[in-house]
Amino acid sequence: MELNFNKIEKKWQKAWEKAKIFEVKEKSKNKKYYVLEMWPYPSGSGLHIGHAFNYVVGDILARFKRMQGSNVLHPMGFDSFGLPAENAAIKNKSHPKKYTEDAISNFIKQQKALGISYDWSRVVSAHNPDYYKWDQWIFLKMLEKGLAYKKKSPVNWCQKCGTVLANEQVHNGKCWIHKDTDVEIKHLEQWFFKITNYANELYEDINKLKNWPERIKAMQRNWIGKSYGTEILFEINGEKWPIFTTRPDTIYGVTFMVISAQHPKLMQLVTEKQKKEIEEFLKKIKSTSEKDATELEKEGAFTGSYAINPLTKEKVPIYAGNFVIADYGSGMIMAVPAHDSRDFDFAKKYKIPVKEVIKGGNVKKEAYTEDGKLINSKEFDGLDNHQAINEITKYLEKKKIGKRVVNYKLRDWLISRQRFWGTPIPIIYCEKCGIVPVLEKDLPVKLPENIKFTSEKNPLIDYKPFVETRCPKCGKKGRRETDTMDTFVNSSWYFFRYTDPKNNKKIFDTEKAEYWNPIDKYIGGAEHACMHLIYFRFYTKFLRDLGLINLDEPTFNLFNQGMVHGEDGFVMSKSRGNVIDPLNIIKEYSADTLRIFLVSIASPDSDYSWNNSGIESMHKSIKKIIDFYKHLKIGKSSSKIESKINKSIKEITENIENLKYNLAIIRIKSLLEDLISEKEVSKKDAEIFLKLISPFCPHITEELWEKFGNRGFISLESWPEFDNTKIDERFEQQEKAIENLIDDINNILRIVGEKKEKVFVYVLPNEKLLYSNESDLIKKKTGLNVFVYAVNDKEKHDPNGKAKKAKPGKPAIYIE
RNA sequence: GCGGGUAUGCCGGAGCGGUCAAACGGGACAGACUCAAAAUCUGUUGGCUCAGUGCCUACAAAGGUUCGAAUCCUUUUACCCGCACCA
How far apart are CA A595 and CA A111, in angstroms? Predict the structure, then answer.
């Protein structure tokens, strides 16, 4: 009687689709619940086990909430712009659209094979002009609000991508996609979004993200990098230069200044005499730029200029240095070698004097960076350095030579990309009018479809039908921007579009978006902590400020599922040969087995390794469930099983609610064992059990539900409620007592070490029924024939007089 | 360097103040069934001891809080992750 799982799966997947049971509307009496898994990049190789895990984690919750009576929005879409599609097009001399759309249909097929309960009527794809039109619209709004701007600046360039990258996409000096490729610095005119305008709000509102993993919040705090300090005006060549420092208490110890080698105004400070030296220095650091930043020694060269310390009026030399970051703070630092180890290293190397201003260390040997009392600081001498930070800042403010400021590490978001397969930036360059935005009514600016892909170069540049256009202002000839936008713009607002995916008048209807948002549970990997998960917060705030939505944060509830590793414990990779293909697993074991197995090994938020014997045994459990229903005798449930069922409902409900699926599954399995050992079970209880497994194994539960003679879908049934009055702890106690007895008997058997046949159990008269009712179980577990006597039974067989040892709840035993 | 996290038995992994020698799964070993194997079922799986009791050593290490700690606090160590010359 082999079951054809795949056939059953297909049957129900079709039935769900036909009945459109997962499609939702805003009009509902029920409470809304928005479950969202991060949309994938549809790669040509199809979905991998990590995707499957991600979707299953979300789907179990979606199905559970739906059964609980929520109006559940569970949509899916595709982040379909990006480099692989373009590279494939170059290779095959085709168009990225074809690659992308093939990949999408393959993804959908696979997602359906997993039995994920998406509302397929809402699917969106980034590369669809109906979608990216709104990317362009947002761009125009950003421009209007002064949040989109173009500037020439040093930008990160990845040779392999053939394009610039945002700061967030540079990891350890390497490209986020090509992890072996050093990012180069190029000076280019590029478009930016002024995310820094929101730096403070993005930082402060992290506190509102109550149900986000701590580490993601920590990463974002770190990335935004808010720090409080003082800006002090130093006079250089008669001009005031603001210098940011967090240590104004050390201002009397400044012995030199260092300006970043990348600072745009560096050459202004270089004197004729020093020009050669500086140029040599710049050349040198350029040639060593491929080295790991950590290994770089601090280096610099004297610019020839001096700065005047506003408090001491001392003249200190200004160096250009390789360790100062151009666009953090003021791009120039006041160097205090006595109390900063970097400054100290630099001073030692270039023989610059060290001036101690905080007591406590030996500044001849090393920088003293701990706390202490001020010295050599005139009227501030003797102050505790923490106090001094305050006092000196106050003094500077009074003299108008400094002020308290807040600084952020966050940089503006560089969104230009020199690639084809992205959202075109809706800008026209006119000789007369300059930079002119495309009119809203002319959106979308579409990517051409009959364009040839021959080389790595963006083909738009040479494609006249695209490039040549008219200026919307003066009507003269204009040239279109050929750069496209970073693909992260697409994912920054897609969760709003799901709520109104077909709207061609507006980006989304406010009412609809406000009905569904914020997302109630957002599920995805942790790798986007400082990219997507910052950008989508930024967009939400921007759209709020446009008056489109009254919402500060896209979600307060973020869940990071763990990584699924190969059976060898390593990350799955083709080269290691440890890749598990979800489709193969579905074919071999069924989608239900894969689903339940994926969430059974460990808590879904922790990493784990695939285990082949594990899925094997899970598959057996599934068959056992089916078998149980095949042989089930419907009748009346014992009060014991009723107690167990109600207790299980309670616990499983809690476990699923908290995404502790692994624990829910343990309960399910143990309840199954209990049910199997019953002689008969009521129809109601048998159905409750099916419902409890349904979010994990939707296909077989639909099938069994139907076999029960039910019409309609179990997926739409209501989740069982538990009845506290049916839960009777006495059953647990009794069970424990029987277990103890079995343990004791087995223990004696082990000690005796001989083969025995019979066990005589002597119990108190009032306990006789309890134990004799379970004699089958005792027999099964000990392999002995069981005889239960009341201690006062005159007929009892008790050659060793053991019966008198019996105590309440602890029977006496004799084995022979 | 900064920040976040983790450390449990052969392995994976629960537990997060008592009911813990520690759920559940995998593996291993033993038994039942079988001509035999697979499947299935049952038991064992820290040590000593014992007709079922009891004792010892245990949840990275060392301290501490507590009547009581795998669970709370401190320090240390190891590992993982993120940022990294951010002034």
Answer: 12
Within 7 Å of a protein beta carbon, the nucleotides of strand B are 2-5, 12-15, 23-27, 31-32, 39-44, 50-53, 81-87
The pLDDT of residue A87 is above 90: no
pLDDT tens digits, one per residue of A358-374: 988 888 888 888 888 99
Query: Which amino acid, one-letter code, is at A55?
Result: Y
CA–CA gap between residue A775 and residue A789 (Å, rounded) = 11
Whole-angstrom Cα distance, residue A206 to residue A194?
A: 19
Location of structure tokens 């180890």 = A341
Number of C-beta neighbours around residue A409 at 10 A: 16
CA-to-CA dists, residue A306 to A243, A271, A674, angstroms: 14, 10, 85
Q: According to the 3-state scheme, what is the secondary structure of A530-576?
A: CCHHHHHHHHHHHHHHCCCCCCCCCECEEEECCCEECCCCCECCCCC
| Closest C-alpha to A44, from A15, A87, A1, A10 | A87
Contact status, residue A190 vs residue A179, Cβ threshold 8 Å: no
Pair A788, A763: CB distance under 8 Å: yes
Structure tokens that stand for A654 in this block? 């809690």
The upper half-sphere exposure of residue A725, i.e. CA atoms within 13 Å in the direction of its Cβ, equals: 0
Burial class of residue A372, CB neighbours in 10 A (0-12, 13-18, 19+): middle
Averaged confidence pLDDT in chain A: 91
Instruction: Retrieve residue A635's tokens.
Output: 């009748």
**Mean pLDDT on A25-54:** 93
Distance of alpha carbon A585 from alpha carbon A9, whole angstroms: 14
pLDDT at A287: 62
Q: Which nucleotide lies nearest residue A782, CA to C1'?
A: B42
Residue A687 phi, psi dihedral angles, 5° rounding: -75, -35
3-class DSSP assignment, residue A795: coil
Residue A570 or residue A302, greater confidence: A302
Both tokens assigned to A746: 């087995």
A307 strand-pairing partners: A236, A316
Joined tokens for residue A595: 């689903």
Point out the least confidently predicted range of A41-55, A147-161, A580-594. A147-161
Min mean pLDDT across A125-134, A304-313, A362-371 is at A362-371
Q: Which nucleotide is nearest to A258 (CA to C1')?
A: B87
Residue with CA nearest to B52's C1' atom: A744
Given CA atoms A233, A235, A241, A247 in this order, what sign does their dihedral have?
A: negative
pLDDT score of A505: 95
